[in-house]
Amino acid sequence: MITLLADGRESTVEGMVVPHGVTVLGWERKPHGWCRGDACLPSFRAAAAETGQGVDLAAFAGLLGRPVVADEEEGVVAVGEPAGTAMDVAPEFEELTRLRGRKVALVFWASWCGCRYDLPAWDELHRELSGHGFSVLSVSLDREPADAREWLAGTDHPAVVDADGRIAELYNVINVPTVVWVDEAGRVARPQDTMTATDTFRSMNGLSSERAVAALRRWVVDGEAGTTLRELRAPTEDECLARLHARIAAWLLRSGRTAAAERHLRTAAGLAPHDLAIRRGLLPLRGVDPFGEEYFALREELETAGIAIYRPLPDWQETA
Question: Which H or E element spans position 117?
């Protein structure tokens, strides 16, 4: 048996070739092809993944444009979202769907980031602007939900912990803090932006929370998003593969298989050296202080290589 990590769930399959008659990645075999809801993959296309023994999981995922990383020695395979996925329509997840009809600021944060201290300020904005049809939805990138809970205690806004990294994958979030605005119809109004709600760490990030919050208010109250989707960062193939290696690494770390996990983490870092959501985000699972020497060595590595740690959009930084 092999553990399958896909679509935010953990399940088991008999092997990399799934026997006939079994649903594959939510798709069901019908006489005319493989179907999932109203979408169908015709038989002539699916034939490339079908064998006498069943369906080749990696080949089938490839037909769907979904990247795959398999570690058969460790008995685990991860399947991700397609590379280069367009985000003009905000990718859905349950907590966001509940807020359809409202403007939403998706606030990505983590307990391993100083942005955890901004949560009370985001919560206050949620309460202040609620009457304008606005909600904050915070998304913690903590791999252990318990690490996020203490920072969420006493807050009123809706929140979710993205322990398997799927929401970060859907929105191509590579560091925190990151904020994405979603309008009432579920469209992205502002793509990935480094925004803060306080100036607690302005000496490190150089960002004005006053200007960020003013831009948010202009959008909520006056409907001025102030930017376009030209600024959107779609994931590259390497970024998608890095996230799958990280997902497998987290699964291995939880089961105590440190050496195998480190191998996948090294591969992830090579594919996406700029992805701090992976490289810093998995430090706690490794038993490493995410505010310690290893993190500051990582910052120095990225700065020396000319890789941006914070990626604010340019439109709101000049005017309060």
Answer: none
How far, in Å, CA of 235 to CA of 81, rounded?
Answer: 10
- Residue-wise pLDDT for 209-243, tens only, equals 999 999 999 999 999 888 777 788 889 999 999 99
Q: Which residue has the tokens 């398999």?
A: 70
Burial class (CB in 10 A: 0-12, 13-18, 19+), 178: buried
Instruction: Give first-to-last CA distance, the chain, whole Å.
Output: 57
What single-letter amino acid sits at 108?
Answer: F
The residue ranges of DSSP E strands in 131-200, in sequence order, are 134-140, 159-161, 178-182, 188-193
Between 3.90.170.10, 3.40.30.10, 1.20.1250.10, 3.30.830.10, what CATH number should domain 94-231 receive?
A: 3.40.30.10
User: By C-alpha distance, which of 72, 19, 81 is closest to 50?
Assistant: 19
Cα separations in angstroms, 81 against 65, 101, 103, 208, 263: 8, 26, 25, 34, 22
Radius of gyration of the chain (CA): 21
Q: Round the average pLDDT of the chain to a whole number and report it.
A: 94
Compute the distance between CA of residue 235 and CA of residue 256 in angstroms, rounded to an integer: 30
Distances (CA, A) of 216 to 33, 156, 203: 47, 19, 22
